[in-house]
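Page 42, continued from yesterday. The earlier attempt failed because a stray header line got pasted into the input along with the sequence. Redoing it now with the clean sequence only.
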Amino acid sequence: MRCGVASLPDGVTWPMVLGGGFLAGIGFTMSLFVAGLALGGDLLTAGKIGTLCGSVASAVVGSVILVIVLRKA
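This time it went through. Structure tokens are written below.
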């Protein structure tokens, strides 16, 4: 963007991109896969809970940002 190589599509703002970025954090399948390979026992359980909590937080924050931004638009 700063170099002038690309531009945002019409009707898209930076806050919309930010909200979409947060929603992208929902995809936790690979995190669970890596945790399953790297951890075991109680650490695996903690890793799965942490991944799930992070995904829920990402979904909530992204949704709130988009609801606020899209109401204004």
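Notes: The chain has a mean pLDDT of 88.
Reminder to self: strip header lines before submitting.
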